[in-house]
Amino acid sequence: MIAVDIIISGLLLGGLYAMVALGLTLQYGVARIMNLAFGEFVVAAAFGAWWLYTANAISPLAGLIVIVPLAFLANWLIYHLLLMPLVRRAKSREVLEGDSILFTFGLLFVMQGVMLSLFGGQLYSYSYLLVPLDVLGTTVSANRLIAFAFAIVIGLGLYLALTRTRAGTAMRAVAVDPRSARLVGIDVTRMSALAFALGGALCAAAGVLISMFLTFSASGGVLFTMKALIVVILGGVGSLLGTLVAGLLLGLAEIATARLIDPGLTLAVNFAIFLGILLVRPTGLFGRSSS
Amino acid sequence: MSAARLWQAPVLLLLVAALAVVPLVANGYYLALGVGMLSYIVLATAWALFSGPTRYISLATAAFFGIGAYTMAVLSEAMPVAAVIVVAAVIGVAVALVVGLATLRLRGIFFVIFTFGLAELIRQIVTWYEVKITRTVGRYIFLDIGQEQIYWQLLALAVLVFVVGWLIGRSRLGLALRVIGDDETVARHVAIDTTRAKLVLFAISAAFMSVTGAVMAPRWTYIDPAIAFNPMISFQVVIMALLGGAGKLYGPLLGAVPLVLLFEVINANFPNHFAIVLGVVFIVIVYFLPGGVAGLYDRWRSGTLALPAAAARSHAAPGSAMLQLVRLRKAFGGLVAVNDLDLGVEAGEILGLIGPNGSGKTTALNLISGALKPDSGEILYKGRPIAGLAANRIARLGIARTFQIVRVLEHLSCTENIVAGLAFRPRPAWGDDARRRAEDLLNRVGLAGRGDVPAGDLNYIDQKRLELARALALEPELLLLDEWLAGLNPSELAIGIDLVQSLRDEGLTIIMVEHVMDAIRSLCDRCVVMNTGIKIADGPPSSVLSEPEVVAAYLGGADA
After folding, report:
1. Domain range holding B119?
2. What distance in Å separates the CA atoms of residue B199 and residue B205, rounded to the nearest whole number?
3. At a CB cut-off of 8 Å and minimum separation 6, what does B4 contact?
4. Residue at A115 is within a domain
5. A267 interaction partners in chain B (CB closer than 8 Å)
6. CATH number where B450 lies
7. Could you tell me if the ipTM is greater than 0.85?
8. Cβ separation of A262 and B132 shorter than 8 Å?
9. Residue B314: pLDDT above 70?
10. Pairs of residues, one from chain A and one from chain B, whose beta carbons lie less than 8 Å apart
């Protein structure tokens, strides 16, 4: 049953892509920071989980409790200390996008360099809950299922937080129009910092979950960044539903390509989908036009 | 050419000659360093040709470089080297056109992201093709080409890229790209075909990068896709161009020389910390050198290339129909901003378009000028349907506009702002002729002597004046003024009204959206009142303004 196999594996992978991308959509959609060092944060969290598990025998799921708040704090500090000068200086959204792209390039290389000197260039993995389970006739390992379940819980929690709480509503207002948000008394700087930190925390959580079943390396962050970017833009910047759908779509396409054609062509298929959809809908699947 | 610049040509020639004899005296190490430096100078300069003026951060350098290198690896045994270089350039241009056509119409950020993955994408496809179809990974290059020859070829390429860049800077294409970099919407409304301009430059830049790759390929005796499509090249080129300053032609050179040396030292002494240093350099540039060492403000110098002078445009006969809107409709979601609007404008008249806020006036102007496409209905300009045409094409037909929220090209001088209007109309003005005309237009709107001031430094009123001058530079037959008189003080208002009056006396047809009733009364022959997207009155201002429905629309009627 190769079709069922592809669908289940694709959805499991796509769910995690969606979660990685949710973090980026918060950072880009609300805080307007195009964070190209995003994948490095994913990998850093994966190394954190690896270290906790192999050196301290702390399970990755317990590791989330340590790593996620740490990532939140680190990203909050990065926003306030390093990005605020750029935000203050930027005259327009485009200028900030350009500056943040260049700054996060720098961050990307610094983080990659530090991780390379700490861990070297080889691939890392650890086996945690590597128990085969039977799902609708296909075999899936337990760690993938648990990671997927956590991704769903975290994604749902984020959705509720954004739609049901005052801070979430304020964040969505900033995403739509920072200038008007200020007029109704929303502290845009605070909300942007919060969104950036929350995005970073989400991406760390995704990194921990991914490390449970995928191999990772110090220089592998760029690929995560690329996929998250594709998902965010495909779904429509700022749209949570769009991010989810685009993430699942990408996961399915990737697994289908790998199983049916060639594992070496996954990125090519990703980009083909990216271009194909943008040519028809320039603002993404669920994006609103800005003009 | 001015006397101050006359010494430059011999000095540059001497410099190139001095560089050309380097291989005769330098040893292998320094020659290799020279080859590396020249290749990055060409790549960074070619990168800045496109990314400097458009401000699109392209990460496609590695892709094009790799295309060139791999083309050489595949074809070097089948063809002479010179032919392979041409083929490499052609493939590079073809890929650039495909990528550009797909992404350059979209927002700049999408372009960045796509180019971010382009090198990896092409590497995957080439690897897949080699493994599955030709069953090889990697190829040997057996060419008898030494370092010296590579050095000389790169030097020739460097000279060529500077000459091409210099010519582009002096051409209308160069100005078009600078206008796009400043404000793409304005670019379209001064008749620039923005997608085409970007595409042309992207392709030129890609050709240089591909040729560099082809020239460099014989340095490796063995090439596989991972060597050819090394993504680090893209990042290094970006950082070199930015350090030097992408806004000036010689900027990337200033960045490439020190950084190649720095990277060489780091690679020799701390190979494991290369990425960290690269990252720190990036961050330092963003914080402290946003314009590069070549300077924050790159002042584009107007060339002296003279184009045929523009002839006066023949105006339509007074009284004939200039513009006709037929059941024009535009909805934003459920809100119908312009609801089956019928409207005629005769040649030589000033039509006032008034109505409460949100009544659809600016949307109507946006539909006429091509900023928006109508959902249905027809726009006839001198009898010709123009609904749905691109803004740049409508501008070329003779419809110019100003914007409700003033849009000047902040980083360009006042003269350059107006030259942008002169250079892309059907009978373009260029060079000294354009400067003279720009000066006349500046005088006309009351900005005499301010030609060299950056438009961003003008106050609000003067920016509005400049915007009008830019619109007039297109020599329009129909001028759309969107609240051009708003925000003027009483004496400025009187001057502004006289100016608009003098434009009409010259035969211009004008549609003005306006809230200043004094101006409507004194200027307009006819007045159309809109409310909720519908025309509710049409006639001479005095009678229209006293109609009960108009009063109700403005002040709120019984049903409001």
Report:
1. 20-230
2. 10
3. none
4. yes
5. 117, 120-121, 124
6. 3.40.50.300
7. no
8. yes
9. no
10. 117
Number of residues that make up chain A: 291
Residue A63 lies inside a defined structural domain of this protein: yes
User: Which of A199-208, B302-311, B415-424 ranks highest by mean pLDDT?
Assistant: A199-208
- Residues from chain B that touch A264, judged by Cβ atoms under 8 A, are 124, 127-128, 131
A222: CATH: 1.10.3470
Gyration radius from chain A CA atoms: 19
**Residue B269 resides in a domain:** no
Measured CA to CA, the distance from residue B3 to residue A224 in angstroms comes to 56
The SS3 call for residue B340 is: strand
Considering the domain boundaries, does residue B202 fall inside one? yes
**Would the CB atoms of A226 and B286 count as touching at under 8 Å?**
no
For B485-523, the three-class secondary structure string (H helix, E strand, C coil) is CCCCCHHHHHHHHHHHHHHHHCCCEEEEECCCHHHHHHH
Cα(B241)–Cα(B260) distance, rounded to whole angstroms? 12
Which of these, A226, A239, A253, lies nearest to A285 by C-alpha position?
A239
In the block, residue with structure tokens 């979209």? B106
CB A208 within 8 A of CB A48: yes
Q: Write out pLDDT tens, residues B229-283.
A: 888 889 889 888 888 887 788 888 888 898 899 888 888 888 778 888 888 888 8
Query: Which pTM does this prediction carry?
Result: 0.76
Nearest CA in chain A to B276: A110
Residue ending a domain, among B230, B264, B297, is B230
Is there a contact between B279 and A230 if contact means CB atoms under 8 Å apart? no
Q: Which of B560, B124, B73 is nearest to A263 (CA)?
A: B124
Q: How far is B335 from chain A (nearest CA, A)?
A: 15
Do B342 and B461 reside in the same domain of the chain? yes
| Same domain membership, residue B337 and residue B218 | no
- Read off the DSSP letter of residue A288: P
Question: Looking at the structure, do residues B326 and B188 belong to the same domain, yes or no?
Answer: no
Q: Classify residue A285: in a domain, yes or no.
A: no
Amino acid at A69: P
Asked whether residue B37 falls in the same domain as residue B169, the answer is yes
Residues of A in contact with B273 (CB under 8 A): 113, 117
Backbone φ, ψ for residue B454 (5° rounding): -60, 135
Does a structural domain hold residue B251?
no
Residue where the block lists tokens 């506009």: B401
The CB density around residue B318, as the number of other CB atoms within 10 Å, is 12
Does the beta-carbon distance from B272 to A110 stay under 8 Å?
A: no
Contact criterion met (CB < 8 Å) for A106 and B117: no
Task: List the beta bridge partners of residue A74.
Answer: none
For residue A270, the chain B residues in CB contact (below 8 A) are: 117
pLDDT at B184 over 60: yes
Per the CB < 8 Å rule, is B125 touching A265? yes
Query: Domain span at residue A151?
Result: 2-280
On whether residue A291 sits in a domain, the answer given is no
* Domain end residue (candidates: B168, B203, B230): B230
Range 61-120 of A in CB contact (< 8 A) with B = 82, 85-86, 94, 97-99, 101-103, 105-114, 116-117
Q: Which residues does residue B478 pair with via DSSP β-bridges, in sequence order?
A: B399, B509
As for how many domains chain B has, the answer is 2
In a domain, B163, yes or no: yes
Distance CA B310, CA B504 (A): 21
Residue A110 has its nearest CB partner, among B114, B127, B280, at B280
Number of domains in chain A: 1
Which residues from B are below 8 Å from A36, CB to CB? 116
| C-alpha span between A25 and A231 (Å, rounded) | 9
Q: Which residue of B has its CA nearest to A227?
A: B117
> Would you state the structure tokens that stand for residue A280, as one six-digit string?
């028809």
Cα B368 from Cα B332, distance rounded (Å): 17
For residue range A250-268, what is the model confidence (pLDDT) as tens digits? 999 988 988 888 887 888 8
- Closest CA–CA distance from residue A229 to any residue of chain B (Å): 7
